[in-house]
Amino acid sequence: MMTKTSAISPRKDGPKRGDSARRVYQELRDEILELRLAPGAPLDETSIAKRFEMSRSPVREAIVRLSAEGLVQMLSNRSTIVAPIDIATLPRFIEAIDYLQRATTRLAALHRKDEDIASMREAADIYDHLCHKVEPLALSEANKTFHMRVADAGGNPYLAQAYGRLLDEGRRMLHFHYTSVRREGTEFPLSPAHHQMVDAIEAKDEKSADKLAHEHTRVLNNRMQEFMRVSFLDQPDLMK
C-alpha cells in the first residue's frame, strides 16, 4: 500500500555563523581603523550582539580575530577594549617596519614573476589615484595592498604575515595623518617611492630595492614624528 508523502517546505536558513562573524569583524575593524571606535573604548559583546541582531557567539569569534590582529585587547577581568595607541612605541614600530619592509622588498627583487610586477604597478597606480581624494581608510588600505603585493612576490609567507600585521597596527596612526591632510583641504602628496620600488624589483636590483625600502620607512618616520609633535604635544589624553 502506497502512502501519500506530504510536501516538505524548503528550509529557510538565516545567515550562517561564519558569515555573521565576518560581518561583525569587518565592520568593527573598519570602525577601529577609522577611529570611530576610539583607542581604549570598551567592547561589550552583549551590546554588539544587540546592535547586529545576532547571538554573542559570532561576536566573540569576531573579537578573537581582531585580538589576533592586535586591534583589540582582551583584559584579565574578561572585558575587551579597543587596543590603545602608545606614542612611546612608535620608534620600535618604525624599527620593526623597516626590517620587514627591507626584507620583503629584497626577496621580491630576487623572486618576483612578471605577473607580480603588473600587480604591484596596478596597486601603486590605485594609491596615486586615491591621493587626490584623501580618503583616510581607502588610502591606508591601498598602501597596505601595495606593500603586501611586494611581500607576496617575495615568496615567504611567514615574513609576509608578520609584515601584514605590522601594517595593520600602523594604519590607525596613518589615519590620524591622512585625516589632518583632509582637514587642511589639500591633496596628499604623491610619492614616487612605490613606483621606484617596483622598478628596482623588476630589474632584480636587490641592493636598490633595499635602499628604497629603507628610505620609504625613513620618510614615513619623519612624517609621523612631525604629525605627532604638532597634533598631540598639548593633547596627551588623546592617545595612551
UniProtKB/TrEMBL annotation:
Q: Provide the transmembrane region boundaries.
A: none
Question: Does this UniProt record's set of keywords contain Nucleotide-binding?
Answer: no
Q: Which Pfam families match?
A: FCD, GntR
What Gene3D superfamilies does the record point to?
Answer: GntR ligand-binding domain-like (1.20.120.530), Winged helix-like DNA-binding domain superfamily/Winged helix DNA-binding domain (1.10.10.10)
Keyword annotations: DNA-binding, Transcription, Transcription regulation
The terms under GO molecular function for this entry are: DNA binding; DNA-binding transcription factor activity
Tell me yes or no: is Transcription among this UniProt entry's keywords: yes
Q: Which InterPro entries match?
A: GntR_C, TF_FadR/GntR_C, Tscrpt_reg_HTH_GntR, WH-like_DNA-bd_sf, WH_DNA-bd_sf
Q: Where is this region: Disordered?
A: 1-21
Q: What is this protein called?
A: Putative HTH-type transcriptional regulator YdfH
Which organism's genome codes for this protein?
A: Octadecabacter temperatus
